[in-house]
Write a structure and sequence with these properties.
alpha+beta, Immunoglobulin-like, five-stranded mixed β-sheet, 1 helix, globular
């Protein structure tokens, strides 16, 4: 009997999740977990306007969180990593903002106004980007 109640509760949460998620995305935040060698976001898209980013460095080393606006997917930028610095040249990118350094085990929050477009969330510490520390975010019109 306990198992049936547990499954029922799980299904209730599962059925209600899409509605709650849609409402959350229209009014709330992007949660991004950073760790070696990945940035995982709770959503691939968000509506344009003020977006609050909740950051959580679950890694063992420091990372950074930079937002760039681009017409290409994050993986298309990997070949553009400078072989000398092992970073993307941020002076050639359009960045509406960044959180900056996020020490291991630390969380952070910031809000930024993003118009509709394609963005890449990234860590640009030497080697980190090419090792996979980026995530795509599509910002759609209201």
């Amino acid at each position: 009997m306990k198992r049936l109640v547990g499954i029922g509760a799980f299904l209730l949460v599962l059925i209600g999740a899409p509605i709650a998620t849609a409402q959350f995305l229209k009014t709330s935040a992007v949660i991004a977990v950073v760790k070696e060698w990945k940035i995982a976001s709770n959503t691939p898209s968000h509506v344009a306007g003020p977006i609050t980013f909740y950051l959580d460095n679950q890694g063992n080393i420091d990372h950074e969180f930079v937002i760039i606006r681009t017409d290409v997917l994050g993986k298309a930028l990997v070949p553009k990593v400078d072989p000398t610095t092992m970073r993307l040249d941020e002076s050639t990118l359009t960045s509406p903002g960044e959180y900056g350094d996020l020490p291991a085990g630390v969380t952070g929050t910031f809000t930024i106004n993003l118009p509709a477009g394609h963005y890449v969330l990234m860590c640009n510490i030497a080697d980190h980007y090419q090792l996979g520390m980026y995530a795509d975010l599509e910002v759609t019109g209201n």
